Amino acid sequence: MSLSGKFFKAKSQPSQGQQNQSNQTSQNQDNQQKDFLKESIQTNLDDNLTKLKNLLGNSSDVVSRTFILSGKRSIHLAVIYIDGLADSKSIQHFILESMMLKCEEKLQQSPRAEEFSIIKDFAITIGEIKTVNTWEDVSNSIMSGDSAVLIDGYAVAIITGTKGWQDRGVTEPTSQNIVRGPKDGFSETLRTNTALIRRRIRDVNLRVDSKNVGTVTKTDIAVMYIEGIADPEIVKEVHSRIDKINIDAILESGYIEELIQDETYTPFPTVYSTERPDVIIANILEGRVGIIVDGTPFALTVPAIFTEFFHASEDYYQRADFSTLVRILRLSSFLLTLLVPAAYIAVTTFHQEMLPTRLLISLAAAREGVPFPAIVEVLIMEITFEILREAGVRLPRAVGSAISIVGALVIGEAAVQAGLVSSAMVIVVSFTAITSFVIPSYNFTMAVRMLRFLYIGLAATFGLYGIILGLMALVLHMCSLRSFGVPYMESFGPFNKQDQKDSLFRLPMKKMLTRPKLIGTANNVRQTPVDQYEEKK
Amino acid sequence: MHQKVIISSSQFAILVLLNTIGTTILIVPAGLASEAKQDAWIPAILGVGLGLVVISLYNSLGGMFPQMTLVEYCEKILGKWMGITVSIGFIFFSFIGATTLIWLIGNFLVTQIMPESPVITIHAFFVLIVIMGVRLGLEPIARSAEIFLPWVGIFFLLLVLLPISDSNLENIQPMFDSEVKPILRGALSFLSVATLPLIIFHMIVPNGQRSKDTNKAFYLGSLIGGVVLISITLLTLLVLGPGLTARNLYPSFALAKKVGIKGVVERIEVIMAILWFITIYYKTSIYCYASIKGLAQLLSLKDYRILSLPFGMILLAVSLIVYPDVVYEAEWDVKTWIPFTATFGIILPAFLYLVAVIKKRKKAKN
Hints:
The complex is a heterodimer of chains A (537) and B (366).
Chain A: H1 3-12, H2 14-38, H3 45-56, E1 62-70, E2 74-82, H4 88-109, H5 115-123, E3 129-132, H6 135-143, E4 147-151, E5 157-160, H7 190-200, E6 206-213, E7 219-226, H8 232-244, H9 253-260, E8 272-274, H10 277-285, E9 289-293, E10 299-302, H11 320-349, H12 357-367, H13 374-394, H14 400-417, H15 423-436, H16 442-480, E11 482-483, E12 486-487, H17 530-536
Antiparallel strand pairs in A: 1-2, 2-4, 3-5, 4-5, 6-7, 7-9, 8-10, 9-10, 11-12
Helix pairs in contact in A: 1-2, 4-5, 7-10, 11-15, 11-16, 13-14, 13-15, 13-16
Chain B: H1 9-21, H2 24-36, H3 41-64, H4 70-78, H5 80-113, H6 119-136, H7 138-161, H8 180-194, H9 212-247, H10 251-256, H11 269-298, H12 308-321, H13 326-365
């Protein structure tokens, strides 16, 4: 744009012009800052400290402690860290104390050329240590809780690992409860989470690849998998998809999930998320890739397939036959949640002949006073229930009981008595409400909750024909989904005999000899058959 | 991570099976019973046997061009212009097949289940889902067929096992009392609905190449489908009797009305209709896929999906007028459909096969 053009535009739309200008200046600042970050540290300590102060803008949580060691010369040093992120105790003990009290003698005895290595290798008694020489590395390290030691006369900074902020600690996961099994859950700290996984997989091949995503938040992400089990193609794909992300902030693993999933326009999750370490470990052992994001207890695994969302970790800890039964129960609950309100509408409005005569009479009697057609009745109740559920989630705990009373009494009892809805409808809606909670994965439930309304609509227009064709469309859609190259309905369509051991059924452990066929391609064998082993003996 | 379109031979077999059953299960017992009366199950068996012979013709034809679709090898065998003409014939054939199926499902619903619904909405909804499937591609269609197969199996078993107590052996007696001619005619009508349209499966090349496995799958799918059809025919005869079977428009639906457990569930024929919907859906989808894919190959388009929406609209319009009424349909099914399918299902493939063999011999001599 030419200058005159800019001028006229600015005249006609002064506010926008100003905005442009201010945008430009802030961009200039940005660029300046970027250039500065690339610069190296200088040798003069005072210069360095002023520059750092400029960079961090006098923030009150930045602590910079300068002190002097007297060796062959008086050495000026500064320790810079962020209060709250760095563990001040370890800074005090292992940097300040050990330098000030123990190393002066040694410094005086040794030649001047050795003073840097004495400070670095002898005085600082902290495990994780490295030297950097650009401002970018220094600021990044400080921001992640490490402390930087600057020494006058040296153009490098010593970064010491002093991360130690307040953590919620390892507590029981709240979103997925189980009766039998480990009760620890992930926390908000990446290191704690990777440690929880590493603690249980003592294999040298467990890889933790670190990444940094988010131009402003610079969130740490760990990609975890077992080399030799995970499909290298999938690992590569995960890396490339995460590397492609260019966003300002990653606040939760949900961001990553949405940014790396194969298909955006689908109600179904194609990335598995959980806050249970044992689930992530089991998935990694099957050849999946885990993605752990700093700042959230929810970790992800890919590829995720349909059946996975119906598995709970407990299935593997309790008897196989019972687990199979429970899985069938879950899958039928999924279908019931999806279809019961729709089927009720279809049967009562289109196909009354299907009902036994007596049931039909009592249904008709119950619906006698209701002024609305079945579809309106269903919608009233379903929407009311969704509102109640949403209110229950966001509610302060103290008023929680109020909602249940209002929900149960006012909406349930009173609505029937007032003749707004029939009692059969209340049964249908509460039944679907309960079945929707049977599905172990919360984000899969959301898909069903949404789709239910679609089927209600279809049933009201086309009856069972609508439901069936809707179901076909749904299955087609699900069959077209892929998660990192693996078909979403894997083990059902494409049918895979080998994987039937652990999809709808859960065979006894002795029969679970292999990893999922399309996921753990690299190394498919899990165990040698136990019986064979005994025979050989 | 784009992967090549691959459907396995078992998926191919399932699609063939669903295509053999689709619509046939609904209408064929009536046609057979009107020809061969109480012996209607004999032409069914004969039809399945002849069907396998026809499949062997398809397999040897396909085996000569293992990597080509029907449209591609037509051009290869007959040269450019003749090939295109014949291909257009095949495309038209599968298009008409699709429209008649949609008409059938509309008619079935309006006469049997939802008499007050406007037929165009039923057609439109069905076409919508079919086109959705075609747009998603052959892979999702095949995979979803795998998922629905157990359901088809369950409903079929219910349909066969539950009314069995109502059967009456006298209904099929005297046995072997019919003359040869009606039996042959019955077998031909069976063949024309169940087997001959399967030629359009040559628009699909499973695994990128036809092999012994896919040939076996072709036989297997057609054979299992045949067994299903024989048992349904036999059962309608046993339960309803030849007279009622012949007079009923949809005898197996009448049979489904008998499905139930006394006092617990009765009159669940609508649930049984799921069996019809699923099988007819896959038959229509494959017809549509074949004609759209064929058209795209004729026009040498890279992606056939671009044709799917306009094709769907034409399909909807034609499906509403393809038959003016049921009487016309019944007449057309006997008088036109059989020669129509025979042309595309036997005569043309046999002709193509002959030309291909002669050409090959000539080449070998030279």
